[in-house]
Amino acid sequence: MSNKELAEVLFTDTLDLEDVLKKYPRRDKFITRYAPSPTGFTHLGNLYTAFLNYVLAKQNKGLFILRIEDTDQKRKVKEGIENIIKDLNDFGLTFDEGPLNLEKEKGSYGPYIQSKRQSIYDSFIKYLVTIGRAYPCFCTDEYLESLHKEQENKKVMTGYYGSYAKCRDLTKEEIVKNIKLGIPYVIRFKSLNKESDTIKIKDGVIKETTLPANIFDIVIRKKDGLPTYHFAHVVDDYLMGTSLVIRDHNWFTSLPIHLELFASLNLTTLKYAHIPPVMINDNGVIRKLSKRKDVWAKVSFYKELGIPTEALKIYLATLINTNFEGWYQNNLDKDILEFPFSLNKISKSGPLFDKDKLYNISKNYISRLKAKDLYKLLLDYTKIYDIEFYKLITSYKDKTIAILNIEREIPKPRKDYYSLGVIKDYIWFMYDELFNNLTYEWQQIKDINLIKDIVTTYITKYYYEGISKEEWLNSLKLLANDFGYATSNKEYKENPNKYKGNISDITTVLRVFLTSKKDTFDLYEIMRILGLEEMKRRITLLK
Ligand code: GLU
After folding, report:
1. How far is the CA of 52 from the centre of ligand 1 (A)?
2. Is pTM beyond 0.85 here?
3. How far is the CA of 36 from the centre of ligand 1 (A)?
4. What is the pLDDT of residues 506-541, one digit of tens each?
5. Contact (Cβ atoms closer than 8 angstroms) between residue 35 and residue 247
6. Please, are residues 442 and 455 in contact by the beta-carbon 8 Å criterion?
7. 3-state secondary structure of 186
8. Which end of the chain is more exposed for a tag (fewer CB within 10 A), N or C?
């Protein structure tokens, strides 16, 4: 029996490799891809990789592909695929080709979900069987375990290779007999390398280096008929025309396997860039950002906090290239895609996650937003995370925009909000509906009767709707004077015994009365937006 005949037994109605190759004509665009496995939530490192793939595709006027790698059916989680698509969409990383949902996709180089590509992989595997570079292996897990132990005892390299690759030597007749008996099998790639062989590697981040060549007869088709990562990667990235494979550095040591697979299939190899993982400082120990240990690893956590997508993008850009930040400071109005991202400037040791820096970027970003745009973001956020507040700000649209506009849209805007999630903490007292269950933070003046007297005097005697800022400042001085308080700090310092206190004691009373808090944004604006009626109503709350 020839190899070809064996291939026909193994793959009865599989397409011819030539025909498959014709269906995926070569293309001359610059193509990158993001190839996640639907095994759980999106990790910050995934987003970082996806973002890098996306920006390089955009900058080279190329295509960005989403490919779902779900060949490990055991690790697949419910809604994993939908969540990946949603995360990319939420983050604004629009892909040019890929699945839109479980049924629909865009692009003509698909299917883009690996579990739908079995017949494609099979035609490649059939070819390898035909040329004697792949063979069925019937070894059981128990046997493989005992082999591992035997190799350990002998102090030789463990694994399925060379003379240890038992099923390499099966005759075709034995193979056919086993198949007829229904014995489960995998298909292994037959490596032709020797233990002493090495291979030169070029990488966009790690640069040139030499690695030991692959000697293992790795599994390329599992018992369930689906390929392993290694095989699917080679087939898919070749057919889809990936120009540069940007992936986690974890895969770097597998590169010799991939290169041997490319060579055995007579396919031109691809360019690679293996990127280091995002790191975190864990009490002085620098380690990988971990799904299990760090909330910061979950992309959904940033959404919950309310870090605006654009701010997170800016932050990721600083992780990709350290020179981004300087550029960004000088180009605040530009789209970040205008920055020339470069693989050469990626840190080889892995960028360090820094929460304070993220907050700072987010804070600055939010401070530069127009009130109307911030309002929209706040609506989107509260709709998911705080429905009561969402309803409130929806019914008080103009008022909310006015509140958000306080100390905004000016050269030095106020920078209180580092996330959408904290905004309510700063502005809740502006809504009558929320102004209850109060703990007033009175300061120097605590006597409630005096307080009532001060606020009533102010409201009846001095405050009027439409008062200008200048008039308002003056009205505070008059009020201070009425109660025997100095009208300026200077005055008070020069003659402290003459006064009961300083004007700031009086304004603090007004501030606490209207907000319950001692520190807030501009009091003039607070009064202007609340209006006289609400100010009067708040007197009745003083107990
Ligand atoms: N599915 C692989 C993973 O999630 C992707 C590796 C690659 O980008 O090729 O780790």
Report:
1. 14
2. yes
3. 5
4. 999 999 999 999 999 999 999 999 999 999 999 999
5. yes
6. no
7. strand
8. C
